[in-house]
Predict the 3D structure of the following.
Amino acid sequence: MSKLLVGNQKMNMTSSDVNEFLRAVMGKLNENVILCPSSIYIPYYINKGFKVGLQNVFYEPKGSYTGEVSPLQAKSLGLDYVIIGHSERRTTLREKESDIQKKVNMALRYDMSVILCIGETLEERSLNKTDFVLRKQIYSALVGSINIKKLYIAYEPLWAIGSGKVASVEEIERISLFIKDTVKKYKDDAVKVLYGGSVDSNSIASIIGINSIDGVLVGKASCNAEEVLKMKEVVENQ
Ligand code: PGA
């Protein structure tokens, strides 16, 4: 299976930025590139034939939940991918582990491909708590989820997000294997692992070349059309 390039464009683009970006990448991406724009722009992307994912999702299919978007709504628009538990949502938006668990559970139930983000802080890392923190995040997020065939786990160390610092190839390899092993023991099934944190056209080749890595989750560089095209090339030729 080909490796994935997932772009998390966060809340970075205006409508004219989006139009410019889409013009530049039009007809040049493939189905292994999934772009996750702000949800107000999703129709722009879909109408032009891009593969799109959500940056977040709610844990109820329908109802009076002002401002939220559900897995049922996403599926009705043909969307498959959703990012859940990004560190910015865990910290700035104060999303709790119990919310993340409900979101993962509901999105998988609606047959979405879930990209669950996990990662340790710099302090946890310096205290040698990385494995403990990751295991805890995995265990709590997957309570009650039975079918994890469409689950991806994105390892995103918090100190690497938006910092220009990328985890080393050895670290990424060790941790991706640790995540796979942890999920296998917990759910008796295989999981695919992505890496995220300051990935760009310079760093992508060594990361995507790691056997146990199934793709990358890119923030900042995914808002830049030229970067996206270069990264797509690397993933394609991998
Ligand atoms: P970055 O963000 O690539 O800008 O570090 C990654 C992410 O937050 O998913």
In short: The longest helix spans residues 169-187. DSSP finds ten helices and eight strands in the chain. Residues 89 and 95 are 6 Å apart (CA to CA).
